[in-house]
Amino acid sequence: MKIPFCKYESGREEHSNVADVLDAEDLNQVAQLEEEFASYIGAKYALATSHGTSALHLAMIALDLKRGDKVVCSVNAYPNVPEVVRHFDAEPVFIDIESETYNINLDLLEAYLEDNQSKKLKAVIVTHMAGVTVDLERLYAIAKIYDVKIVEDASEALGATYKGKKIGSTGGDITCFNFSPHLKKNVCNGGMLVTNNDEIMERAKLLSNHAIERDEDSLEYIYDVVDIGNDYSMGELEAAYIRAQIVKQDANIQKHQEIAKIFSDALAGIDHVTIPDMSNDEHPFSLYIVKIDKNRDSFALELKKVGVECGLHYIPLHLLTYYKSKYSLKINNYPMALKSYQQVLSLPIYASMDDKEIKFICEKVKQIAKTRV
């Protein structure tokens, strides 16, 4: 048996929606997706983009990020987070993480903001690891005190909730979603920028299509360009496919939670393997992250040999060549991220996983754990 790290879902609804586009029966899929997504999240506005990274990049434009500005983020994030900051010749500032959730440490974030108050400090990008959030009420309060915008990277948090509200409707300035998350690639790309802020959405919409303006009463081919934008647009085929997936997302999360409980029941107490905290009822388990205390990479290689592919979320940014050299970062600058990086391993988890596959994964993890000394 071979179990991939991720598996894309495709059912009758996806095929039907895509067929409608191909048959030119419904060429309004993007607009429908935006409307349905805003309703699903509980947000005022949703703007579809070509990818999750496009949504993040557009968020930086909407916030008018400029050269020399600073944006704070977790050191444990995918490279696209600081990347979209650097594209403006702005500076990412890295903060260490919490030990259990692998999210940005709010104590360290608040201490940094207190010690580095500046008009150049524009925003904080918060990545929701595995769909689990930090204390968002505290985060928003901190942002208000220090006058910074909050951009939420919800690449792994589609449908996840905080105190009953879906991520994207809890109070952040901008939330960015990715329909083909890092290491869990879908058959199509797509992202979404969500906000309740009228000015942010107006600017994002303008700049998402080359900052082109048209007079509705004039000929369609007459236009003007009023700023520097880009093309961030999502295609109709992608929108058609994603629309069908959104309808299933809550059920998928419930299935993930059920699988996570089976994993945790089976792996609890196993030597060298630490299971995730199961006490958070709102954990969507878009990722099932364990800690391996002996030779994590060797453990992962052994799992791969027996047919179980794994992921890693993430390599801390200060260990990557560009950021390490650009900002003269030392390996021990972020001790918690470093310690977690040496141990964390993401096991396969997806809604279509059957009982046989779940049992197979648990058995192989147990077998390999017994060989650790």
UniProtKB/TrEMBL annotation:
Keyword Transferase: yes
Listed name of the protein: DegT/DnrJ/EryC1/StrS aminotransferase
Domain of life: Bacteria
Class of the enzyme per the UniProt entry, highest EC level: transferase
Enzyme Commission number(s) from the entry: 2.6.1.-
Annotated keywords: Aminotransferase, Pyridoxal phosphate, Transferase
Family according to the record: Belongs to the DegT/DnrJ/EryC1 family.
InterPro entries reported for this sequence: DegT/StrS_aminotransferase, PyrdxlP-dep_Trfase, PyrdxlP-dep_Trfase_major, PyrdxlP-dep_Trfase_small
Any one GO molecular-function label of the UniProt entry: transaminase activity
Organism expressing this protein natively: Sulfurimonas gotlandica (strain DSM 19862 / JCM 16533 / GD1)
Stored Pfam families: DegT_DnrJ_EryC1
GO biological process, one term: polysaccharide biosynthetic process
PANTHER family, per database record: DTDP-4-AMINO-4,6-DIDEOXYGALACTOSE TRANSAMINASE, TRANSAMINASE
